[in-house]
Amino acid sequence: MRPHEKGKAMKIFSILEKKKINQPLSKDEINFVVENFTNNKITDGQMGALLMAICLNGLTREETSHLTLAMANSGEILDLSDLGLATDKHSTGGVGDKLTLTVAPMVAACGLVMAKMSGKSLGHTGGTIDKLAAIPNFKTDLAPDVFRDILRHVGVCIASQSANLAPADKVIYALRDSTATVDNISLIAASIMSKKIAAGAETIVLDIKVGSGAFMKSLPEARQLAQVMVDIGKDCGRKMSAVITAMDAPLGYAVGNALEVIEAVEVLKGEEKGEIRDLSIELTAHILHLAKGLDLDKARENAAGVLDDGTAFKKFAEMVEKQGGNTEYIHDTTKFILPRMTALPSPQKAYIQAINGEICGHAAHICSAQNTDLLSGIIFGAKPGDFVAKGQPLAHLYTDDPAVAAQALALLETAYTFSDTPPEKTPLVYEVIQ
User: Fold this and answer.
1) Which residues of the chain have pLDDT under 70?
2) What is the phi-psi region of residue 123: left when phi exceeds 0, alpha when psi lies from -120 to 50, beta otherwise?
3) Torsion, CA 194, CA 198, CA 202, CA 208, rounded to 10
4) First-last CA distance in the chain
5) For the whole model, what pTM was predicted?
6) Domains annotated on the chain, with CATH
7) Catalytic residue positions?
């Protein structure tokens, strides 16, 4: 063993010893671990042992913030300060969550810069990049100078996550995935926030989903994740808030890439007045409140205004054009040629008590052939609390494959719970953490 390798081996050993007995690691020790693991100078076995010790003993607020910054600093840190007030919105993911498609252009229409780097689908939840791929020729793999140019001229750009941002997070996450160390709140928060910090936004609003269709199933764990992420952002000098929102049933009426684009366009055109509009206004208002210091009621008024006067849709259309997309599909969504429709009839006359969001997500995943068919999915015609007649369509599945339709229908019908009385109404927003 060469002397410098021996020194590194001795240092990682002492770090493992400290974490094993639940002593906090210093900023220098965390930087050492992240830098040397990313550069293949710490083994997977050593890093796996440290991750397991973190899962068992936890991280302090200071350790979590140091880890976030170390991963963010492992690659490029975007500086967007010359473009105006740069903002970002991040969702922890849920079934039918197309809010980035509405909030991003709304924020730009309100005079801010929305620099959004998004990902692809993960498990039963859809990814923003997959949704946008349903628009013919839309490009999300953008060079940094193109990304900045679109931000400068339009004020909003939604691009794929750059490989140069937080590369340490990528290699650490891959090891977490193979060592059963994914589900630690501090590691989850540091992973998400390292990419948010590196992406250059000064104001970040988090949409923390909770319920059967989300990764956070209970309010206490959603609240814990929100607080840790807000603390990290503040420790890193960002303006932060987290909005905890309901994700028991699918959000809105569409689940599936093209179907969700169509619903988002209807909201942006002021044609859809449901929960997507309401949550889009709420999240945009919190961004305006943090970035501009507006009173929340005034911020909500501004957010609603850019939907009603068409400026948010105009921003979306400009972004689609700048990113190479065929804007004919945005101005006339009937150009999306959808697959064959199959109805799911209600088995009884009753109130819909609940719709399990996770089951709906898996059924939509089946319809889309594991997210490879961007035009397939599900449109829901009835929501929890609605009274339905026997035989009334609860949802329509879109797929040209009869065998796939049968499989998805059999699963989807298990998502519904019925009752003789209406259920207690669930709020869209549970609470806000700042």
Assistant:
1) 1-10, 121-125
2) left
3) -40
4) 50
5) 0.93
6) 3-58 (1.20.970), 81-331 (3.40.1030.10), 336-419 (3.90.1170.30)
7) 90, 169, 176, 191, 195
